[in-house]
## 1
Amino acid sequence: MSEPLPDGALLWAWRHPRAEGAQGRCIGRTDLHVDPRRAKRLAHRVRQAARRHGLPRVVWTSPLRRCADVGRWLRRWGWEHRIDAALMEADFGAWEGLGWEGIPREEVDAWCADFAAARPGGGESLRQVLARAAAWTPPAGAPALLVTHGGWMLARRWVAMHAQAPQLPTEWPRAPGHGCLWRLERVRVEWRE
């Protein structure tokens, strides 16, 4: 399930496997369990891609279990596993882990009205997530293999293609599927937070 992008892509980013208990809930930094078989399957796919394309045997992951468990499998197989909090999903503050129906409608409406700058649940604004994704750089310009989150992947792609944050929720694209690979290029536009 790879999305075709130019061969010069530097970041090979996989979205973590589907987490247990996420359905219908606001999940950003809530640390949910992933079935070990799902984590192992994704680790196999990462390993196969690295072999096929001559990529380094180093994987960067978010510290959240749904990403880090994949890195732990790779570490068992002789890989280097680096954990970086900059690869985490957005922080939804007080909304974390709540069912969407339990979040007051007026709070969701206020977020949508100021989509780029509002801090849902008192957490992180979209501008902050975009700036964090834009700032992440692989060491020494080498290709980097990541297991990260859908929101981080969307943010990284957004800043590679746009000079500023989206103003409306309808401008924000859909997240990649669980386990999907996106090959992402360096941020080329000048990003303004």
## 2
Amino acid sequence: MLDLVLPQRCVVCGKRSTQLCSACLSRLPRIEPPLCERCGTPTAWPVRRCRDCAGRRLAFASARGAVHYDDAVRAFIAAWKERALRRLAAAAVSVVIEVVPPPKVEVVTFVPPDPDRGLKRGHHPPRQLAELLAAQWGLPVASPLRRRRAAKRQRGLSRAERRRNVAGIFAVKGPVASSVALVDDVFTSGATANAAASALRKAGARRVEIVTFARVVR
């Protein structure tokens, strides 16, 4: 009855369907090799460091994303995060499993939410993604990261401003495994992921691998 009154539509194409129709799922732009070995940026040929990450001090050992952050992926993530369409997480996980090799780590964790935005949304997609991926990989989930304070939105900030905005924002509570997969929904400049990885490293993690559903490719 509810479907007759409020028919479900694909969040990308708008056609009456599931929350993400099979055609749009298949068309999400997968990130394919060759890639930068360190930061995961698509490159013309395999490299250990690309011009995007060369010269930067990175706290993480590697970063891998599943899809390019284009208009379709932006609509998908907006529906997942802002409209709380939690079933979209299953689609995100299926694509990550398809594209990203399982990390060789002991535990999976996630970038924690901003307290205000977390309360407003009522759910946290990176945590949901981390829990579902950990189940697929047969790994435990831990949540040692905390935010010391709220930060300004990263949208619209330059790369340098993004780094300053999140510098020292994360703290770690409790013990940390030696190797950790750190999960987030989107990798934009890498500032947030690097700040979180830095906190984990300072707390004792020797290796941090970043895994995200989407990635902004310059």
## 3
Amino acid sequence: MLNDKIEALNQRKSISSEKLKQIYKRTLIVVSISQIFGGAGLAAGITVGALLAQQMMGTDAFSGLPAALFTIGSAAAAFIVGRLSQRNGRRTGLTIGFLAGGLGALGVVIAAITNSILLLFVSLFIYGAGTATNLQARYAGTDLAHENKRATAISIILVSTTVGAFAGPNLVGVMGDFALSIGVPALAGPFILSGTAFIVAGLIIFLMLRPDPFLIVKMMEASICKQVFEGSLTESNQSNDKRGIAIGAAVMILTQLVMIAIMTMTPVHMKHHGHGLSEIGLVIGVHIGSMYLPSLVTGVLVDKIGRTAMVIASVITLLLAGAIAAISPGDSMLFLIIALSLLGLGWNFGLISGTTILVDSTESSTRAKTQGTIDVLIALAGASGGAMSGMIVAYSSYGALSFAGGILSLMLIPVVITYRGTLKYKIKQR
């Protein structure tokens, strides 16, 4: 179908601006629907991954390992999805990524049934593909977006994740009961939901993301039908802005590291203080809701007041989150909810502002590949945070981990001060 459309465009050499807007709106709708399921797949597994590892291995010291494994898997998948998207379009890359994540989640279920640590590790690694694809989908919304609407487009995709992301952790108890009813360990139940949700997300992308927005932009910027789009999209940069790429990457990498480290150990911390699965699911659900729900407002703010201001807002919010988590009583649901909400909000500010800086700094000939490469680094940062978090808590405390994460976020201040000129958003004259 896509090839037919491209052939038709080549023959007619013309397309209306209205048609282009329709494709853009359709892209946002399709990707947003897929993200509802993708969010559920991401959140349900994250909520109990550490607890499942703790149960199967009998120690807290390695309870951060699941987050590390699926984040390393996310890094590998981000690299592959980015290059598949660069070559074949978003549809191919996102479909393969979601389906792989779904198979990984179902592998975790089998590992829990058979009590196989090796299969658990391998499956968590593959499960990371769903996490990577869930994040890579945010780029699809920017492909046909006007330059001064890119952050808003990213935010629309992210806010759609909220529905599934909030529902996933709050179905932990229900899925645990369902798992027990069919002879599966309770902590594997959420991964049944994850696997199903990721597979559905992949099928939605495969069946409905036509025509592919990234292939259209590549065609335009390669001058195949450049005149068709004159006045509809701004001219692309003639070369990538390496400094802007580095800044955008630094913002996303550091916010990911801080968020993953604190979030990963929160369920374990809560369990030690007598909280049940439902309470843990509520706190993580609110946290993940805070990661995505503010996106519509965040996108507008990034477009209106600038990328720099929102990076600074991210730093301040993460610092507050770390401080509150560090001093909160372990048995206080209220303080944990406040701390984890701020943690999600700070991540949201950093992800959207950093992503927008990255898109601003790249052209379509290398954009998807560059995005995939940066997401590899983001995933590796998350893996480091997840792996180290368990060790820090085991040999120190959850409070020490949280406080260190808040302080670490301050490293972004010199970045935005040094390169504030690069980060200023300049709207191109059309």
